[in-house]
Specification:
The protein is built from 10 helices and 12 strands. It starts with a strand and ends with a strand. Strand 2, helix 1 and strand 3 form a beta-alpha-beta unit. Helices cover about 40% and strands about 20% of the residues. The protein is of the alpha/beta class. The protein has one domain (about 5-255): Metal-dependent hydrolases (TIM Barrel). The structure holds manganese (II) ion. Manganese (II) ion binds near residues 10, 12 and 36.
Length: about 260
């Protein structure tokens, strides 16, 4: 019987120096991982790395920060969404550096959502830095939450926008960087417990002056337990049940998998 200890719903496995080693370590640490990619060209290699893994699942993506140079890859992304139940990293980035490409980003993201909606049963992990309002509007317009499950990764929009995202069926994946400041803590506290997931965005976040690894998602559970005033074991149960729902949505049955609490 397999035993899962934790969940990392947004990790850039292929941006680690040795992805194959990280995947082996996830097996050893028993952490289930959604391995996001930043271009659809990276997906076949990620798929090969993760194909025989019990714990690590490759997602096909086109990062909004790369859309300026790679918007033509959207066609490839659409094709690969047919083959991949997990989609990401996708979304919009409205920060000054990426504003010049915002129209392109909107078009690519809308087409990504349409392709996910067309194939149904997709789980999409979404970037929304400085663009939460537009990301949520596009989800509302292009997605039926009965068909596509959207996870807002590292959400930093307003509390009002969070409520809209909740009504649109979104889940939220939380990392330790979000819990470093009071604004982030307050925002995370208003996530309904049945929409809460953990992530690391590894290797783009740090703990104790080192780059995070997927099993740092266990630290996030402890931090969330403290924030919500629940025992660690209860928080672990909450995350596990939510994770099971998400994997179920993607056609992966974790019910057979024993989760250690
Ligand atoms: Mn990311």
């Amino acid at each position: 019987m397999t035993t899962i200890r934790g969940f990392d719903f947004h990790c850039h496995v292929d941006l680690h120096p040795d992805p194959a080693v990280i995947i082996q370590q996830c097996e050893r640490e028993r952490i289930a991982v959604v391995a996001v990619t930043t271009t659809p060209k990276a997906w076949p290699q990620n798929y090969l790395w993760t194909k025989s893994s019990t714990y690590v699942f490759a997602a096909v993506g086109l990062h909004p920060e790369l859309v300026g140079e790679r918007d033509f890859e959207v066609e490839l992304l659409e094709k690969r969404i047919r083959d991949s139940r997990f989609v990401g990293e996708v979304g919009l980035d409205g920060s000054p550096q990426h504003r010049p490409n915002y129209d392109k980003q909107r078009e690519v993201f809308a087409r990504t959502l349409d392709a996910s909606q067309k194939h149904r049963g997709r789980v999409v992990t979404i970037h929304s830095r400085c663009a939460a309002r537009d990301v949520i509007t596009l989800i509302e317009e292009h997605i039926d939450p009965a068909d596509v499950l959207c996870i807002l990764h590292w959400f930093s929009g307003s509390a009002a926008l969070m409520q809209r995202a909740i009504r649109a069926g979104c889940y939220f994946s939380v990392n330790t960087a979000m819990l470093k400041h009071d604004r982030g803590k307050t925002l995370v506290q208003s996530i309904p417990q049945d929409r809460l997931l953990t992530e690391t965005d590894s290797p783009f976040t740090e703990i104790d002056d080192r780059k995070t690894v997927p099993w740092d998602a266990l630290t996030t559970i402890t931090q969330l337990a403290k924030l919500y005033g629940e025992p660690d074991s209860k928080m672990k149960n909450i995350i596990t049940n939510n994770a099971k729902c998400v994997f179920q949505f993607a056609g992966i049955n974790l019910e057979e998998i024993n989760v250690e609490v």
